[in-house]
Amino acid sequence: MAVAKTPRRPAPLRILTAVPICDGHDSAVTTINLELARHGIEIIYLGYHQAVEAIARAAVQEDVNAVGLSSYNGGHIVFFREVVAALRRGGNGDIPVFGGGGGTITRADERAMRRQGTDRIFFAGTPLEEIVAAIRGYSRPARPNPRFRGDRVLARALTIAESGGRVPAVKRTGPGRSFVVGIAGPGGAGKSTLIDELTSRFLRHQPAGRIAILANDPSHPGSGGAILGDRVSAIYAQDDRVFFRSLATRGSLTGLSAAAPAAIELLRRSGEFDLILVESVGVGQESDPFRSFGGGQPLVDATLFVLAPHYGGLIQLQKIALLNGADYVALNKCDHPLAKVAKAEIQARLDQNGRDQRLHATTAAKHFDPGVDALFSALAQRADLAPAAGGERPCRLEVTP
Amino acid sequence: MSQLGKIADAVGTYNRFVAAEVDRARADAAYAAELRARWAGIRSAVGTTQSPSGTPLPRLALPDTDEPGAIAEYLLGQGLPGEFPYATAAYREMYLDTAARTGEEPMRLFAGLGLAEDTNARFKYLSRHQRSLRLSTAFDGPTLYGLDSDHAGVLGKIGEGGVAIDTVEDMGRLFAGFDLTRPDASVSMTMNAPAPVILAMFIAAAKRRFGPDRVASLRGTIQADMLKEVQAQNEVIFPVDASLRFLCDMVEWCVPNLPRWYPISISGYHIAEAGATPVQQAAFTLSNGFTYAGLLRDRGASVNQFGPRLSFFLDCGLDVEYLVLGRVCRRIWAIGMRDVFGADAKAQVLKLHTQTSGRSLIAAEFQNNLTRTAVELMLAYVNYTNSCHSNSADEPFTTPTERYALLASHGQSILLEESGLFRHTMNLFGGAPGLLALERQVESAILGVFREMDTLGGVIAAMEQRYQRSKIQESGHRLETQIYSGERPIIGLNKYVSHEPLPHVPLARTSPSKQRLQVERLRAFKRKHAKRAPDALQRLENVTRAGGNVFGELVTTVETCSLGQITACLTGVVGQFRPMV
Ligand code: B12
Ligand SMILES: Nc1nc2c(ncn2[C@@H]2O[C@H](COP(=O)(O)OP(=O)(O)OP(=O)(O)O)[C@@H](O)[C@H]2O)c(=O)[nH]1
Ligand SMILES: [Mg+2]
């Protein structure tokens, strides 16, 4: 596997950042995100207008070192307290919560917030360097923790896999058959959007099932940091039945994090999930992120190749090797005027393969798109997802003793 | 080429036309004579006045020249105040003493806190010395996001940063005691994604108070600029196409039914405050404006009808570009509207509201904020803004408290009424060599951004590619880096620092008991209308699905339904906005 041979550095810090509900002041947080990523930190950004539960869920699933909140529209004393409480309720009180809000958070507020469990507030006028240095202090080694419950168990195992450690075995807790779909395609084709739309179909179609998403995104080649922003747009991932994990590539050039194979295995073996969707980074003509070629065991049960009408032209289309092997092909952004021609060209290209590959025409940016419905039906059928009868399945993940 | 490319071209063409006319004025004796004659007429029509110490002054300052090229350059390149291309000003006379005795003052202060009655009291306090009634409303977070005050997890946000409005009854309380149908009354509302619902509540409350016949006399502005929400302010609820449809429905309804209303305020303020440079602010704002004009035209509305109902809102910070930003924007808008949209004179004029920069105000040694705001006010008025909000010195900490709100308003009065800068002579500053040089630089930089967006397929295509957002975020990051490296001197923060501890500033916060009171009021409203609300929502859903004018229906829906109920209904039909980083 093509892993860049750089000297191994310690695993980057992973920090979740977000802005509270009813607050759209994101300029401070996006500045902090850029600054931290430039200093080699991995940021999992959840976005603005975020509810307490969404923040706690993301912190757990991403197994972050700490949570940073940027609050401007008032009510910060209550909000920070609720986030700390939500983490503690789930047995995740080890995740520190810090943040800022310029001058809106006063010294007196800060004292109250610290008493209620907030770790640190950065006041107006704190130099960025000082912020970076303080956040570096949240670094800690990733070890299994027997006190963890639920998704955090799996999340921690994934962190260990990511940092190259010995991956702990995770007890099988669910009946999920775990059909794994690998999703690849050029950068910006709409993979993440399509995954989110498929998620919404899954949640409706499987009222008790769980779905996992592994979103691979590139690390910054220089600093080693990353801004993993897929959660911002994943509006349907805000549900406890969705396990969403962002993986930075950390120098791997395969289109997936080097930990992706272990991560997929962990998710599969947990039995928690009926469907697992793995998004590769944007890939070009020759790549093979899911090891579909070369005769070995592919990483996934099926592959979906997503492209948009702007692939260039027929010649470019010929060169995309993944089109030969993909089980499903989606032409996304069918709202674009070029889509009509593209559809015909791609269908002709697929016909050459003689594999009966059906082209799905989708417009993921539109809700309720019938093309996405059809694609989901095809995947559900292949994954053998039967609409299950009601009743939520509790999550019982624990580490094998 | 997208519409933006055409506009950039049109400005280039116009500039070449001006240059050619200047040459012609110098070469063609007949034309020169004609210009001189016109110029003489203009000059002789300028009245005179004098300063309090007796210095005689013209009421309008004009270039002191008789050279035909210079005359052509001025008349065509800058334009007399109130004349194309409107670089000097939108109207012939502004801020002068005579107007100060009779006309409406340009000051308009943004206010909102607590529950409706608290904001009502603040409105009364701020307007007690005003000749005309100019109110401007800030809403709290839950209202801005279309949520009811009883929505899970929002309790602590009720009444913070703005007023909590859930129902038509709250709206009634908000403006109780004000005669909004007075000819010189105007109400502005900083409201975006839920703007149609909130404006519908405003209309419904006015109907109850003043009777249906007087609704048409309501005058004011609702922000409702959804493009800049996607780009900068982040209050988006519905997908972009649905958001724009609801907006256009509202504009189309307002043009005939609320003829004195400005149903959209095309805003750069939020873009700049989010970190954009002055040039980016202007480029994104103008291009958003042209996008709305294109959307409305494509829906069949007439540019001469909706054009005069569009208004603009810009930020004014301390950077030097702000000295000319309003002037340059008026010029580009006028050329674009005339030469690309074929608009008539009334629809060419960019009407401008300015707010001094909140972001330039900092916590450290915060009393300096008074000076910062004063300088910004000066820049804003040099641009002949039509109306202006000045921020309070306690801006970094809290919704303005009475004391600092009053100082902010007095700042404007000192500049316009006490100082002689704007009272006697119109255009005291325009035409200075530095200004002209800056205007040219800023204009060409704005057109450069237009062309970049044009290659991406226009404003909406660029937006889908995160172009504006990523530019704004990069600039915001650069701004902060420059501050903390000392490259941008900020007195009291990175220069001449006194290391005083942060002061104790009185805060305007909403007490938990008030927050609970708001929830109780909302629940009572919902109980009262429990029988009728479902039908009203069903009708709204039907109209939305059938492609009818949603705004027309909302005016009825709000009689029995709360903001949150309506938002949920509409989201059920059109889905949720998918945000981007
Ligand atoms: C920029 C700004 C805006 C922009 C936001 C653009 C954007 N996309 O972010 C715009 C114009 C859109 C805006 C709108 C509104 N705003 Co505003 N806004 C501000 C302003 C001027 C600056 C905030 C800022 O970003 N500063 C830059 C950052 C980088 O610096 P800083 O704040 O000093 O933060 C430092 C530290 O605290 C730290 N930090 C901050 N957050 C975090 C997080 C982490 C994790 C870490 C490590 C550090 C950290 O980093 C900085 C460097 O040291 C403040 C007033 C002020 N001068 O502070 C008002 C202010 C926050 N806004 C306010 C209000 C009320 C609003 C509105 C609700 C107004 C309305 N009713 O419509 C809307 C709501 C918008 C929304 N969607 O929520 C109020 C809040 C009042 C309150 N809480 O009582 C303020 C205080 C102004 C005021 N006095 O009224 N606003
Ligand atoms: N017009 C249109 N835009 C779409 C569609 N689907 C996605 N987009 C937009 O395309 C952009 C990229 O979408 P993503 O889902 O992030 O694409 P991606 O393939 O995951 O991108 P990378 O992970 O960066 O490679 C976003 O702005 C989407 O809103 C569609 O069907 N039509
Ligand atoms: Mg993606």
Notes on the structure:
The complex is a heterodimer of chains A (401) and B (581). Chain A has 401 residues and is of the alpha/beta class. Chain A has two domains: 14-136, Rossmann fold (3-Layer(aba) Sandwich); 153-383, P-loop containing nucleotide triphosphate hydrolases (Rossmann fold), CATH 3.40.50.300. Helices cover 33% and strands 17% of the residues of chain A. Chain A has 13 helices and 13 strands. Chain A has helices at residues 27-38, 52-61, 76-89, 107-115, 128-136, 151-162, 191-205, 230-233, 260-270, 314-319, 322-325, 339-353, 370-382, and strands at 14-20, 42-50, 66-70, 97-100, 120-122, 179-184, 211-217, 226-228, 242-248, 275-279, 302-307, 328-331, 359-361. The radius of gyration of chain A is 21 Å and the shape is globular. The two termini of chain A are 33 Å apart. Chain B has 581 residues and is of the alpha/beta class. Chain B has a domain at 3-78. Chain B has helices spanning 3-27, 29-45, 68-78, 97-102, 116-127, 141-144, 168-174, 195-210, 226-233, 240-257, 269-273, 278-298, 303-306, 325-339, 345-348, 368-382, 402-418, 433-455, 459-464, 467-485, 512-528, 533-546, 550-557, 563-574; strands at 48-50, 56-58, 109-111, 133-138, 185-190, 220-222, 261-262, 264-267, 310-316, 352-356, 387-389. In chain B, the strands form three sheets. Chain B has a five-stranded parallel sheet with strand order 3-4-5-6-7, with helices on one face. Chain B has a four-stranded parallel sheet with strand order 8-9-10-11. In chain B, helix 14 packs across helix 18 and helix 22 runs antiparallel to helix 23 (550-557). The radius of gyration of chain B is 24 Å and the shape is globular. The two termini of chain B are 28 Å apart. The mean pLDDT of chain B is 95. Chains A and B meet through helix 1, strand 2 and helix 3 of A and helix 6 and helix 20 of B. The structure holds cobalamin (B12), guanosine-5'-triphosphate and magnesium ion. Residues 191-192, 230, 279 of chain A line the site of magnesium ion.
